[in-house]
Write a structure and sequence with these properties.
The chain is α/β, with parallel strands linked by helices and about 350 residues long. Helix content is about 25%, strand content about 25%. The protein has helices at about 25-30, 45-50, 110-125, 135-150, 175-185, 270-290, 325-340; strands at about 10-15, 20, 40, 55, 60-65, 70, 75-80, 80-85, 90, 100-105, 130-135, 160, 190, 195-200, 200-205, 210, 215, 220, 240, 255, 260-265, 305-310, 310-320, 320-325. The strands form nine sheets. The protein has a five-stranded parallel β-sheet, covered by helices on one side. It is globular, with a radius of gyration of 21 Å. The model has no long low-confidence stretch (mean pLDDT about 90).
Length: about 350
């Protein structure tokens, strides 16, 4: 993108965080098998090498009709072409009462700052109980990584996985069996009920109450509030609607990718796999748009390889309805994840 851009094009990156954390390495970092530096990408040398301006602030609002975005110090930053990849937020609509004991997985940068504090609190207590709320693969990986980390502190520390009626609803029965066996191996209790409140205790939909010291929410995504006031075409739940080229269906000079958007031409899961592959297509399309050339669609593959970390150096690999498991799967995942991050880790100029 940088090498092929027209010479009179000015590029500005707006991001509130200097370091971008790669979610694929998060479980390994939580369990102590990766360092924070190994999963972090520093934006400063990237911007320096690319010759682009970086504004270290969060985007607070935008107006697509008048073509400007708003940050805390930039009340009207105008653009000709806009690419959005701010991510979504964790849906906390029914867990907000947890307040000081609630830690959402998103934004990831905040979670990375808070997780060491969770471990520090666990070191001060004879027994510590952590609840992971969520039914997807991310919740499962978090639960297993957290259990390994807490067990290294004390054998009395435990993790509870609250998953609702169904755990991993998109997995095949054989894949689910592999996952449940790994949860049992780590002595992680799975509660098949929904967490409906987390005030003093974790209240479950089956009427039971669980006392926990901390709740980590991996409960799916919701769109940030600013999308509803952006004048962009959005879904009923606020996600930016895009077509096959990841171009806004209402404003052709706006593109969006990742968890922030919703494809209108076909259903597409919000996953890191699609975000990475669609991002590469988006980069090309931005250049094609500047040169008034035809854009190309992002065509998601029917099947993607999913590697699920199991806390210790062990992982489950899933492809379609098929799956394998073992230490070698974990090694493969680590190699892929580290290689992906290293390609963006450059030193400051």
């Amino acid at each position: 993108l940088i090498q092929r851009r027209p010479p009179d094009t000015k590029i500005t990156l707006i991001s509130g965080e200097r370091y971008q954390r790669y979610s694929g390495l998060l479980p390994a970092w939580m369990a102590g098998y990766a360092t924070e530096a190994e999963m972090s990408i520093d934006l400063v040398p990237l911007c320096q090498a690319a010759g682009i301006q970086w504004i270290q602030e969060d985007m607070l609002a935008m107006n697509a009709t008048q073509r400007y975005v708003v940050t805390s110090t930039q009340p009207r930053l105008e653009y000709d072409l806009l690419s959005l990849n701010t991510g979504a937020e964790t849906n906390l609509s029914w867990l907000s009462a947890a307040a000081d004991r609630l830690l959402p997985i998103r934004p990831l940068s905040n979670f990375v700052r808070q997780w060491p504090l969770v471990l520090a609190q666990a070191r001060q207590q004879a027994s510590y109980k952590l609840a992971i709320v969520g039914a997807g693969a991310a919740a499962v990986e978090l639960a297993m990584a957290a259990q390994v980390a807490l067990q290294q502190i004390s054998a009395r520390h435990t993790v509870l996985l609250v998953c609702g009626q169904h755990l991993l609803p998109d997995f095949s029965p054989a894949q689910l069996k592999r996952v449940t066996q790994q949860l049992q191996r780590l002595n992680i209790a799975v509660v098949y009920a929904r967490a409906v409140s987390a005030d003093q205790e974790l209240l479950l939909s089956n009427g039971q109450q669980q006392f926990v010291d901390q709740v980590i929410a991996a409960t799916g995504t919701c769109a940030p509030n600013w999308t509803q006031h952006s004048t962009l075409a959005c879904s009923e739940d606020g996600f930016i609607q895009v077509g096959a080229t990841h171009q806004s269906v209402s404003h052709p000079e706006v593109f969006a990718v990742g968890d922030l958007c919703q494809r209108v031409d076909q259903p597409m899961a919000r996953s890191g796999v699609h975000a990475v592959h669609a991002g590469a297509v988006l980069a090309d399309n931005l250049l094609e748009y500047l040169d008034n050339r035809p854009l190309r669609p992002y065509l998601p593959k029917r099947r993607s390889l999913y590697l699920l970390s199991c806390g210790t150096p062990y992982a489950i690999g899933c492809w379609g309805r098929y799956s394998l498991e073992g230490a070698w799967i974990w090694w493969l995942k680590q190699r892929i994840d580290h290689r992906f991050v290293r390609q963006y880790q450059i030193k400051s100029l």
